Backbone:
């Protein structure tokens, strides 16, 4: 690109969405800096090449296969530690590593979050009961690549509150995912999710957000599930991140139990979540942990 053609107030050619003068003007590489370099320098975002995308895609297949195995044991009477054993053994048997195990001191291989537990539930002796909802969040490292996905399941037949919060949370991920394309911003995704969830009388958890993923468990950028249209950085092809809205039936506030992990709704209301690992493509998105929403 010819430097002289880019005005100080024009959009920066690096694709950041900032004005040129607020971005690459005067920087060493100038306006010819490509997305990979610019996003690494400005946001610490590591764009994924085709080899990395394929690695994450393959890890994602193992995550989904493991979620399907888990679904088959979700019924009244199942002890949550059984889910942990199943996830651990299936992951290892397939050459993977369960990323949660020992991650910042997390003691188990999967997060299992029942009813009012928003996220980071630690599997243990708790028995699932008829009418519960349970989120199972699986992150697998395979061949060095991380894929991260979760679903919320019904235990037996759901009551109206369980049906409502799970339906709304699933739709939040669907609507957020639909906003993923080059040129849209992180705020466009958060806005779509927040507007829908709050319109349904539910609330969006603020303390936990989606995240870049692939080379590591949690990379830049943070992906809030709330926000304003046009806010935040501009999506570019090669970004890989999770969208994982945590939606409460009551108020958005949480507290963390004495185990330092388990996050529960402050008002005790139900909370549900769905998560996928999403790649920004040239014309939209590809889920690297695809399942129907
Ligand atoms: N899988 C969770 C996420 O979606 C993170 C769990 S961290 C752990 O980002 F330590 F609790 F495993
Ligand atoms: Co995640
Ligand atoms: Co996760």
Residues:
């Amino acid at each position: 690109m010819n430097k002289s053609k880019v005005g100080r107030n024009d959009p920066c050619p690096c694709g950041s969405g900032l004005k040129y003068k607020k971005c690459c003007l005067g920087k060493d590489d100038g306006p010819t800096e490509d997305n990979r370099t610019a996003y690494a320098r400005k946001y610490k975002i590591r764009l994924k090449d085709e080899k990395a995308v394929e690695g994450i895609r393959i890890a994602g297949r193992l995550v989904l296969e493991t979620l399907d195995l888990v679904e088959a044991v979700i019924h009244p009477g199942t002890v949550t530690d059984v889910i942990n054993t199943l996830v651990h053994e299936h992951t290892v048997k397939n050459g993977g590593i369960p990323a949660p195990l020992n991650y910042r001191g997390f003691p188990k291989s999967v997060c299992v979050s029942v009813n009012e537990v928003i996220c980071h539930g630690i599997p243990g002796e708790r028995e699932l009961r008829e009418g519960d909802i349970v989120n199972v969040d699986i992150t697998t490292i395979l061949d060095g690549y991380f894929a991260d996905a979760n679903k919320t399941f019904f235990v037996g037949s759901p009551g109206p509150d369980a049906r409502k919060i799970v339906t709304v949370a699933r739709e939040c991920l669907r609507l957020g995912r639909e906003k993923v394309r080059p040129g849209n911003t992180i705020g466009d995704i958060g806005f779509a999710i927040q507007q829908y969830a709050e319109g349904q009388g539910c609330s969006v958890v603020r303390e936990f957000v989606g995240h870049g993923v692939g080379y590591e468990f949690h990379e830049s950028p943070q992906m809030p599930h709330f926000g304003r249209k046009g806010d935040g950085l501009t999506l570019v092809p090669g970004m890989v991140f999770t969208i994982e809205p945590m939606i409460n039936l009551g108020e958005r506030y949480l507290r963390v139990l004495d185990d330092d992990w388990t996050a529960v709704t402050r008002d005790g209301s139900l909370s549900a979540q769905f998560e996928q690992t999403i790649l920004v493509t040239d014309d939209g998105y590809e889920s690297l942990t695809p399942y129907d929403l």
In short: The chain has five helices and 15 strands.
